[in-house]
Design a protein that fits this description.
By secondary structure, this protein is of the alpha/beta class. The protein has 6 helices and 10 strands, in the order H-E-E-H-H-E-H-E-E-E-E-H-E-H-E-E. The radius of gyration is 16 Å and the shape is globular. The structure holds guanosine-5'-monophosphate (5GP).
């Protein structure tokens, strides 16, 4: 097992909590308060995995993906692009946009990216905090394809492997790289894969 996976498992067990059988709360080091030194290790581990793949941009979705994506981009020596969430349909012909359904929050939102920051010469890595049903990642892929860029893969800090995101993305030929995989959340207990 990779060192970062071991560290994440320890941190999730000591600081995380299961909300029912679906949601993992990790507000103390990822989603509300951020541990910069720990995030630096996360960014480096992701960058190491993709270092030979000719990545030109790291893309994330605001807001919890920004910290790991920024540090990963720092180690790869490339820019990070933030896809923006807008509450309703926008009218701007200089933006790529697509609609995303969030099962977690039971809402729909518009995801947008400026046409200025991606083109057909880009080879893109998507970085996010969580992978669950894969809706956010699939929406990000739609925007990247609108820009005619190619996609190297997707990396997340935490994958909930009992939800179908990983399989859905891998079936499209993507390199899906989660740093830690949750097998189940049951009665307040957290179970890891492996
Ligand atoms: P997906 O689109 O893969 O279903 O969900 C991914 C997004 O939903 C992530 O970017 C994350 O913000 C949010 N999310 C999904 N599951 C969880 C969870 O268990 N805990 C937290 N904190 N966020 C989650």
């Amino acid at each position: 097992m990779e060192e970062i996976t071991k560290l994440l498992q320890e941190k999730i067990l000591t600081e995380g909590s299961a909300k029912g059988s679906e949601i993992l709360k990790v507000d103390s080091f990822i989603n509300h308060q951020v541990d910069p030194a720990f995030m630096d290790l996360i960014g480096k581990a992701i960058a190491d995995h993709f270092s030979q793949q000719g990545i030109t941009k790291v893309v994330t979705i605001e807001s919890s993906g920004i910290a790991p994506a920024l540090l990963c981009a720092k180690y790869l020596g490339v820019p990070m692009v933030i896809m923006k969430k807008q509450p309703s349909a926008i009218l701007n012909d200089h933006l790529y946009h697509t609609e995303i359904t969030s099962f977690t929050k039971k809402t729909k939102y518009e995801l947008t990216m400026s046409m200025d920051y991606m083109n057909e010469n880009d080879h893109v890595l998507i970085v996010d905090d969580f992978l669950a049903n894969g809706e956010a990642a699939t929406g990000a892929m739609r925007l990247i394809r609108q820009a005619h860029a190619t996609i190297a893969g997707i990396s997340v800090i935490i994958e909930k492997s009992f939800q179908p995101g990983h399989e859905k993305l891998e079936a499209q030929g993507l390199d899906v790289y989660p740093l830690v995989q949750i097998a189940a959340l049951e009665d307040g207990k957290i179970f890891f894969k492996d």
